[in-house]
Design brief:
Layout: E1 2-4, E2 7-11, E3 21-22, E4 25-27, H1 34-40, E5 53-56, H2 62-70, E6 74-78, H3 81-92, E7 97-101, E8 117-122, H4 129-135, E9 140-151, H5 152-155, H6 161-174, E10 178-184, E11 192-198
Parallel strand pairs: 5-6, 5-8, 6-7, 8-9
Antiparallel strand pairs: 1-2, 2-4, 3-4, 9-11, 10-11
Bound molecules: S-adenosylmethionine.
Length: about 200
């Protein structure tokens, strides 16, 4: 991904959600996007047109739009009607976003629509975030990457965020992922950890 003088950008036509531009580039704000925060904290995320993505928790399509600037097909799942309207609008301006209105706890609704992907990105702020991730591994190619944006306070508001994170790491590893990087996203997003995982080849 491209960083110009410390500013993360993506290629694509601007004016999607009021983002600023830098020449031909769309500025990708780390305070509005946990994925931007992760990249600006130094974690390399390989994203190009050969990478197809399943995106869980698409919201209004803010981050989705930037991911789609770099990636191949992006299957974007969201269950709330209001953000879904914006997501559909964002999808109209791109040729590679497939918006899916569904609950990620009911993947049978969309499993016929989604192919095996190279990257799964999950940002759903639910108590069962690790379990949702584990259930979606069937969509991930061997050797593929799973990025879980863990909102620790959604799992347990009273528990120490580091303990919540450690329990989630154990859950993901028990499900078969190798957790390669744990990156806290402060100061951009408090009590959020990005768990960057790989599904082993064997
Ligand atoms: N990823 C978005 C971005 O960076 O632009 C922000 C996502 S927001 C933190 C979390 C989203 O997950 C909300 O839009 C919420 O409606 C959605 N969500 C939460 N639970 C969900 C579920 N069970 N199924 C589908 N979407 C869900």
């Amino acid at each position: 991904m491209k960083i110009i003088d410390g500013t993360l950008v993506s290629p694509g036509k601007g004016g999607v959600y009021g983002e600023r531009t830098l020449g031909e580039w769309r500025i990708w704000d780390p305070y509005r996007s946990k994925l931007a925060a992760l990249v600006l904290k130094g974690v390399d995320v390989a994203l190009d047109s050969s990478v197809n993505v399943l995106y869980l928790g698409a919201a209004n399509g803010t981050t989705v739009s930037h991911v789609a600037d770099y990636a191949g097909t992006v299957y974007a799942v969201e269950f709330a009607p209001r953000p879904m309207q914006d997501l559909i609008e964002v999808s109209r301006r791109r040729t590679n976003i497939v918006p899916i209105m569904a609950d990620v706890n009911r993947m049978q609704v969309y499993e016929m629509l989604v192919e095996q992907v190279d990257l799964i990105y999950q940002d759903v702020a639910q108590p069962n975030q690790a379990a949702i991730a584990a259930h979606h591994l069937k969509f991930l190619k061997k050797g593929g990457i799973f990025i879980l944006m863990l909102k620790t306070r959604s799992v347990n508001v009273r528990e120490d965020p580091k303990a919540v994170c450690e329990a989630s790491v154990q859950h993901l590893e028990a499900a078969g992922l190798v957790v390669e990087t744990v990156q806290w996203l402060d100061p951009y997003h408090r009590d959020h950890a990005a768990l960057v995982c790989r599904l082993p080849e064997e």
